[in-house]
Amino acid sequence: MLATIMYILGGVILLVVFLGVIAPKNYHVSRSIQINRPLPEVFNYLKFLKNQDEWSPWFQKDPNIKKGLKGIDGSIGAVSWWEGNKEVGSGEQEIKRILSNETIETELRFIKPFKSTSEAYIKVEKVLPETTTVVWGFSGLYKFPMNIFMIFMNMDKAVGKDFESGLSDLKRILESE
User: Fold this and answer.
1) Which value, in Å, is the radius of gyration of the alpha carbons in the chain?
2) What DSSP designation does 50 have?
3) Does the pLDDT at position 63 exceed 80?
4) Of 7, 116, 139, 142, which sits with the fewest C-beta atoms within 10 Å of its C-beta?
């Protein structure tokens, strides 16, 4: 009996180790859209964290969300924070790097429903004088044992539609100005 339990326990441990080895270790999700506005106007709008309140799909999922801002919005070190319902969770986003008219890089620090950190970015590229491509994305690492669960869940499918929705709202806002 004891030997059977030890074999089962050993098998479970081997299975968990095996799954941990083969499971994805990182993720990257991005989407893009073309906006009929000049690049400098698009970039100037995007660099302010406060403006994300207008087009972020997650802020729309909780009408009672609490949010705030620390630091000088639109500059390195600015931090927006939020506390929301189960769908939105809580966390903060900090501007880490700004390359004028090119890229805004931020760090997303999720607190609830689970702790994690992701690197996010928004890139802009001039297509025509009045047309700008916006690429919005984020990436990060799965820690063990969370990476095992990711065998059964696709991050791109989980949040890709939210990115598309947010970019569509961004386009509508910027093209209506």
Assistant:
1) 20
2) G
3) yes
4) 7
